[in-house]
Specification:
The protein has about 180 residues and is an alpha/beta fold. It has 2 domains: about 120 residues, Rossmann fold; about 55 residues, no CATH class. Helices cover about 40% and strands about 15% of the residues. It is built from 7 helices and 6 strands; from the N terminus they run βαβαβαβαβαβαα. It has a 6-stranded parallel sheet, sandwiched between helices. The radius of gyration is 18 Å and the shape is globular.
Length: about 180
Amino acid sequence: MDIAVVGLGYWGPNLLRNLYELPGCDRLVACDLDESKLNKIKSRYPVVEVTTQFQQVLDDDGIDAVIIATPVSFHYPLAKQALQAGKHVFVEKPFTSSRREGENLIALAEQAQRKIMVGHTFEYSPPVLKIKELIEKGELGELFYISSSRVNLGLHQKDVSVIWDLAPHDFSSIFYWLGEQPVR
């Protein structure tokens, strides 16, 4: 599979590193407006192709999927263009800046018969996996209520509220633990 990573801020290089180590990833393209970030990637991973032009990514018929790891305000327009170009799309969380944008992207993906997904990394962290195991073994008994709080906000996006940025981790974990998906 050929994949482009768009955005080399905080998460983009981490995603690129993981993709680089996957045997099923045949070709990687890194896209960012900052050439110094592209040069860093190129020096670390010489086989990775680099570009400052998102349109080049869209026009490349060989690219199967696009990962959007930009500031949130760019998620919707970039994901929309990628879907319209026939690419599968992975978007870092938060998915979009609004519910309407998210619903529009889901509808576009369905129309284009392409996959779209959101990166929920907490589902794979040891504490979340351990809680899942305890629930499945019945060691916590029957669950009636789950409360979530944070002792540290850590890094968060500057272009959306901290709740919009970080709450998806909590919701994703809860849905994972319960084996359920939200309903309207």
